Amino acid sequence: MSHHLSGPDLRSPMGDARLDMTDLFAFTVPGDRTVLIMNAHPAVPKEGSAFHPDAVYRINVDTDGDHQADVAFSFVFSPPQDGRQTVTVFRATGQQARDHEAGGEKIVSGGPVAFGAEPRTVTSGPFMFSAGLRSDPFFADLEGIAQDFKWTGKDWGADKNIFSIALEMPSSELGPDPVIGLWGRVSLRQDGQLKSVDRGAHPSLTAYFNPENSAKTAYNEAEPAQDWDTYLQPWTEVLQHTGGYDTQAAEEALRTVLPDILRFDRSKPAAYPNGRALTDDVTSARLNMVSGGKITSDHIGPHTDLQTQFPYLGAPHPEPASL
After folding, report:
1. Domain-embedded: residue 269
2. For residues 117-130, b (16+ Cβ closer than 10 Å) or e, as one string?
3. Does residue 298 lie within any of the structural domains?
4. pLDDT tens, position by position, 130-177
């Protein structure tokens, strides 16, 4: 189910929904601007939740194709108090971008987090930023998938809310090459140490390819630069089992998602796996991949509450459903 519930036993990492990265989006908008959106916390309840104050939420950007972060945006949230929370946004470059700690230039300091129906947007130099409660854009017939692909027509995400982190900037802020690579990460500080508890870029990988709990935990802690060497063989075996692939066909298919970095050529329109627009049917794309073309769609379409203006996600549902 996209990247929702990417921890052991199909639960959130550390059993904490606040640490659960759900989706990563990358697309361009008019004016030669790039939008990056990272969502977290599947099925936010009606009230009483916020971003984790001991976590570092991060969007990593590879600008030269070496599978290492060259630019990193880190988001650190204050402890919630009286229904309010603030966020500080850091932009790191070079070697500092490869450290999981939040570092570099502060581009937003003490920005407001929106828990109501209206987003709160901060403009800082060339950046637009917003964080808070929004409607989850993820769509899929998860019940049908769980029932051995007997489709129900029910969209699991139709009534869910998430916490969203959205950035919009001139495309030049991410380097002159239109091709970039992206992945998200959530790290948690415990006993003075920062530990990566979730990471990913392409949707629905760990759900299909990392069935063992130990594999899920190791994956969430790892760096994408090691993905090809680590996961080529076991993931090839998964595709051979689920889709009847031979070794060569499996390797060709896996080159799209390994390493787990979302490539985006910004000279072309975003359409997964070239970036990811909010309306891209990633569930059907993954079903088609793992089934070897036997299952091409779950017959669920994109949400209609998306906005044409920043931060682009729809207003939160007033009576959200729980998991």
Report:
1. yes
2. eebebbeeeebbbb
3. no
4. 999 999 999 999 999 999 999 999 999 999 999 999 999 999 999 999
pLDDT in tens, 47-90: 789 999 999 999 999 999 999 999 999 999 999 999 999 999 99
What are residue 164's phi and psi, to 5 degrees?
Answer: -115, 145
Residue 106 resides in a domain: yes
Give the residue numbers spanning the domain of 68: 8-290
Burial class of residue 305 in the structure, from the number of CB atoms within 10 Å of its CB (0-12 exposed, 13-18 middle, 19+ buried): middle
What whole-number distance in Å separates Cα of residue 47 and Cα of residue 314?
A: 18
Contact 104, 85 (CB under 8 A): no
Which residues, listed in sequence order, are joined to residue 38 by a DSSP beta bridge?
A: 24, 165
Residue type, 42: P
Tokens of 22: 């759900």
Is there a domain that residue 313 lies in? no
Are the C-beta atoms of 270 and 276 separated by less than 8 Å? yes
Task: Identify whether the C-beta of residue 156 lies closer than 8 Å to the C-beta of residue 143.
Answer: yes
The structure tokens 């009230």 sit at: 47
Residues near 48 by Cβ (< 8 Å), separated by ≥ 6?
none
Instruction: Quote the DSSP letter at residue 107.
Output: E
Confidence of residue 1 (pLDDT cuts 50, 70, 90): low
Question: 88-97, 99-108, 203-212: lowest mean pLDDT where?
Answer: 203-212
Q: Which residue has the higher pLDDT, 239 or 323?
A: 239
Q: Which residue shows structure tokens 């796996």?
A: 273
How many domains does the chain fold into?
A: 1
